[in-house]
Amino acid sequence: MTDKELEAVMDGIQQAEAVREELGVALAGVGVTLPSLALDVPTVAACHAVPLIDLGRCNLETARRLAAVLRAAGTAL
C-alpha cells in the first residue's frame, strides 16, 4: 500500500468515526442509544477507503424507540 493509499484509508476512518459520533449524538438527542454503534471492523481491517458504520445490536425497547422516532420523523416530512 502506498503512502497516498494509506492516507486515504486513514482519512476515511477519521470521517467514519466523526459520522458515527454525529449519529450517536443525534440518536441520544431523541432518547435512543445504540450500545454497539461502532465502525465495521471487517471494512476497517480490509483498509477500505470508506469504512461502514455498524449500527450494532440492540434490545427490543431500543428498537421500539428507534422505530417510533423514525415514524415521527417520517410524518414530519
UniProtKB/TrEMBL annotation:
Origin superkingdom: Bacteria
The protein's name: Uncharacterized protein
Native source species: Streptomyces cathayae
